[in-house]
Amino acid sequence: MSHINPDETLMLLIDHQSGLFQLVKDVPIADLRRNAIALAKIATILKIPVITSASVPDGPNGPLIPEIHEAAPHAQYVGRRGEINVWDSPDFVKAVEATGRKTLILAGTLTSVCMAFPSISAVAAGYKVYAVVDASGNWSKMATDLTIARIVQAGVIPIDTLAVLSELQVTWNRPEAKEFADLYADYPMLHYRLLIESYDKAQAVQKAKH
User: Fold this and answer.
1) Measured between alpha carbons, how far is 42 from 170 in angstroms, rounded to an integer?
2) For 65, which DSSP code?
3) Long-range contacts formed by 91-98: CB under 8 A, 24+ apart
4) Which residue in the list 114, 116, 133, 135 is annotated as catalytic?
């Protein structure tokens, strides 16, 4: 298996907007929000560049949720002129090309539009694209199922947030191991915190015995 190489990867977080979140029915909003933030945080930990964009943020779609740029202060926001498919924005494509990176991790709301359209366009432009399904959100589960079938036919690789984090982490034998553990426990896998707490308690009991 060829791991996603963080040194060759660019994170694209598209249209995670407060208005569009109100249309999401296929994933709990709290989960969607945490997963999008987790992607921004992993990009910060591993120094992966991030580009964000919003669809008509001064209209009913609403602004980007602020946590993404808080979690990834280095993220570059690229506005657009009404294009539904962010890949139709010359400024956005220019920003992507400027990074020189050919592997994209992409999430967007709504899944069947904001995630699917640029994913398909980027593959056609020669990029390797991982579409993070649970960091995107859609108006129905049926729409998401159809979208996954569509993007796979186009050559996009569907993936979930936890798989992205683990594949980028590669090993626990690294200085940021604690940051990764906290990332899992605070964002995509909340029950992981219970595992950490039980392990810490077991270690403390063992130490007390000695």
Assistant:
1) 13
2) P
3) 92/51, 92/53, 93/125, 95/51, 96/10, 96/12, 96/51, 96/122
4) 114
- Decide if 177 contacts 62 (C-beta within 8 A): no
Give me the sign of the Cα torsion angle 102, 71, 134, 186.
Answer: positive
- Between CA 204 and CA 210, with CA 209 as vertex, the angle to 5 degrees is 100
The span from the CA of 112 to the CA of 101, in Å, is 25
Entry pTM: 0.92
DSSP codes of every residue in 25-50: -SS-HHHHHHHHHHHHHHHHHTT--E
Q: Is the peptide bond before 190 cis (omega within 30 degrees of 0)?
A: no
Using one digit for the tens of pLDDT, what is the confidence trace for 138-170?
999 999 999 999 999 999 999 999 999 999 999
Average pLDDT, the chain: 94
Rounded Cα distance, 208 and 105, in Å? 45
Please enumerate in sequence order all residues whose Cβ is within 8 A of that of 163, keeping only pairs 6 or more positions apart, or say none.
Answer: none
User: What does the block give as tokens for 205?
Assistant: 């009991």
Q: Would residue 114 show up in a list of annotated catalytic residues for this protein?
A: yes
